Amino acid sequence: MNRIMGYKRADGSVGIRNKVLILPSVVCAAETARMIAMQVQGTVALQNHLGCGQIGRDARMTIDTLVGLGKNPNVFAVLVVGLGCETARPKEVAKAIAESGKPVECVIIQEAGGSLNAVSQGVRIAMDLVARASLEQRVPCDASDLVVAVECGGSDPTSGVAANPSVGSACDRVVRAGGTVVLSETTELIGAEHILAARSVSPEVGEQLCSICRQMEQRALDMGTSLRGGNPSPGNIAGGLTTLEEKSLGCVHKAGTSVLREVLPYGAAPTKKGLVMMDTPGFDVDSVTGMVAGGAQICVFTTGLGTPVGNPIAPVIKVTGNPSTFAKMRDNMDINAGVILEEDVTIDDMGGTIFEEIIAVANGKQTRAEILGYCESSFWRCGTCV
């Protein structure tokens, strides 16, 4: 049994961090939220560039993502900061988050009499929430409580032959321990989706997987372009990847060998244990944000070329399969899977190392991205501004 020490939440979920989140409901309140967080240690402000000028499904997806981020088990309490006239109504966002049983407060700039008053109110509220959060204690939990997001970005050929298969081996261990693994990046399954669909729990789930890939391609065609015009990216091509299919064949290795249990829309929480797939774009930050909104407490992120990005809510473990990248970007990398290419280390060996790191980070070890303060976030959209 793989034990972890986590924070038990009122809704039964388990957090591995104990954040007080300052959550702007709209871009117009984002700077005010940042100012509050700057003055109160123990808080983190989320970056939100949306929240208004959206309609229909596009607006709904942004609101649901905000609520999901607030409900993430790594968050002890939330202060929602709104402008007051936005599409993503701040009091409604706060009410939906509060259904999880966690403390939630709301400050609205227009009601407070301007941003300076809102900051003053927000700082006092945030101070109280941090004091309450400080009383929380880690308690014994199990690895089966973990929801692990997997992501790749800045890929090169070493991603497909070293880093991604090693992460897949680690993910198989998470699944065997009773946990959940969330695969993402629909764009980067195209050309390899049949491999994952073949081991779906049912033909229906396999068809759902193939369907989101077709829809992703169609969205690009509807805009008069092709996904293959921007994927692989210039950096991927410079690193040695030549086609989207080649990139996808590497990407799918992050799924390991487990059965695919479920296909989720962007930002939705898994309803099944084991391996699940979330419909996200290939853009790293949008994708990670969606999985964290779906409840992932931790992210394992492979990169061949290197990237420093993190997340404000979930720790991000960086794994590179490129020994040169590990040497050049040591400050940003957590694990060098490139030893597979240079030493007598197997993919299974490295999978065990990554799994051990997941458990260590779940128990409180800080990742490089956390130590350096990287906390990027952005939301996927399915419409245009109005």
Radius of gyration, CA atoms, in whole angstroms: 20 Å
Relative strand content: 15-25%
How many individual domains? Answer: 2
Mean pLDDT: 94
What would you note in describing this structure?
With about 375 residues, the protein is an alpha/beta fold. It has 2 domains: about 120 residues, Rossmann fold, CATH 3.40.50; about 230 residues, Rossmann fold (3-Layer(aba) Sandwich). About 40% of the residues lie in helices and about 15% in strands. Strand 3, helix 1 and strand 4 form a beta-alpha-beta unit. It is globular and about 60 Å long. The N and C termini lie far apart (about 50 Å).
Question: Can you describe this structure in just a few lines?
Answer:
With 386 residues, this protein is of the alpha/beta class. The chain is 41% helix and 17% strand. It contains 15 helices and 14 strands.
Q: Helix and strand layout, with pairings?
A:
Elements: E1 3-8, E2 14-15, E3 19-24, H1 30-39, E4 43-45, H2 56-71, E5 75-82, H3 90-98, E6 104-108, H4 109-112, H5 115-133, E7 139-142, E8 147-152, H6 157-176, E9 180-183, H7 193-197, H8 203-222, H9 234-239, H10 244-251, E10 260-264, E11 274-278, H11 284-293, E12 298-302, E13 316-320, H12 323-328, E14 335-336, H13 339-342, H14 347-362, H15 368-372
Parallel strand pairs: 3-4, 3-5, 5-6, 8-9, 8-12, 9-11, 10-11, 12-13, 13-14
Antiparallel strand pairs: 1-2, 1-7
Helix pairs in contact: 1-5, 2-3, 2-11, 6-10, 6-14
